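Researcher: I've got a protein sequence and the SMILES for copper (II) ion. Could you write out the 3D structure of the bound complex as structure tokens? I'd like something to compare against our soaking experiments later this week.
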Amino acid sequence: MNTIIKSGILFLSIFLFSNFSAQTKSFKARVEGNCGMCKERIETAAKSDKNVKSADWSMSKKVLTVSYDASKTDKKSILKSVADVGHDNEMFRASDKVYDDLDACCQYDRPDNSKKMTKNADTKQVCELK
Ligand SMILES: [Cu+2]
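Model: Sure. Here is the predicted complex with copper (II) ion in place.
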């Protein structure tokens, strides 16, 4: 009986410790984007890091909410992946090359990109239909 209790306590403490060391944390970050395709792309990029538990991007607020294992990854690395697929955010700016390769409707407004936005102005409506 004593052995059962002891192994029970041991099991419980291992369980609690492994749970504790996982250190699940979350953050919210400003991420630029336009439509449902952007949402898909942003969330997939964040989740490409297997230490990310969940990622949700709000199209109306342009805010990405991520919950992740803080002992294995960090906000910087996750937001870097998001910039790598073309989405500017509060820590990284996507390369012009990747941004230019996005579907026209996904080319969100960039402060220094007014010419491009005028060029793509009428394709923006296509975005709503997708
Ligand atoms: Cu889009």
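Model: The pocket of copper (II) ion is lined by residues 33-35, 37-38, 105-106 (CB under 6 Å). The chain has one domain: 23-129.
Researcher: Great, I'll pass this along to the crystallography team.
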